[in-house]
Queue: 2 jobs
Job 1
Amino acid sequence: IGPITLVTLISVLLLAVLAVLCVTTSNATQAMAQRHAEATTETYALDSYGQAMLATISETTQHASSAQAAASDVNANLESIKTAALEKSGAQGLSVSAQVSGTSVSFTVSDEEGKALDAAVDITEHRTLSIDEWKLSTTQQTDEETLWSSESSNQ
């Protein structure tokens, strides 16, 4: 075996290793992009529902004579407002809780993956909405399995 054959053999081996690394990296990048796309879709679904909820609350408040009357209308129609917002947004698999306190309306929308939107709006005297809070969050879900315990398991 001459030096040219040895150099060629090492070059081919290095190229094969680099090809395997490229394939592995592209697969990992594709998997990460897919996870990011799913997370973004979930976030947009929550935000879309929140926007639909604001639009539906705003529609409900337009015919009231005062902020208090508008808040009463919203409170009386809260279930239909949540349903209408769900239809407008087209989102699925969301759980919604909402409450009215004075002229403030607060709602929390969450999905199965642990993402949540917490929002609070205030109904002004002109029957417009003032957004006081709009917070997207993610709760980390962990398994119940204990990885380590300071207690001895041989008792």
Note: The mean pLDDT is 89.
Job 2
Amino acid sequence: LILAKQFPDQFRVVSMTRDPRGVLESFSKKGLQEESKGALAASVYYLYSLLCMKIVAREIPVHAITYEQLMTRPDGVLAELSEWTGLDLSEVRQKMAAAHAFPVEHVLTGNRLRHKGAVKVDCRGYKEPGASTLKNRLVSGVTRRVAKALRLIPS
């Protein structure tokens, strides 16, 4: 918020959220340098992140997208982002279309990904999120209902 207020004409916030099922599956992955998180911890983290972004959005304009939108219609989402930010994202669009890797250069890319060096975004192999275990299905369903009830995500 401080940067946005100091540089209002140069600062843009993009919020990318993800379906809770995808969050739970991602956080339960093993073999990464950080420990995997349980379903309840991932759910609390998800709701906390949405709440923080809601607070930020009260103070400054935020352009919201979802991971699922980016994966299913990358050209449209990147065109919207390009228009909203005023940035030329044509190189990003080309890299995504060719499933090239993007370097991971800072923590904001995601704590669990920062050790990988590069992240490949391949929209062609994208599948809608699904929770693999009964527990994850139940927790993600409750999490989604709570997020909608609190108006943290669209109904």
Note: The radius of gyration is 16 Å.
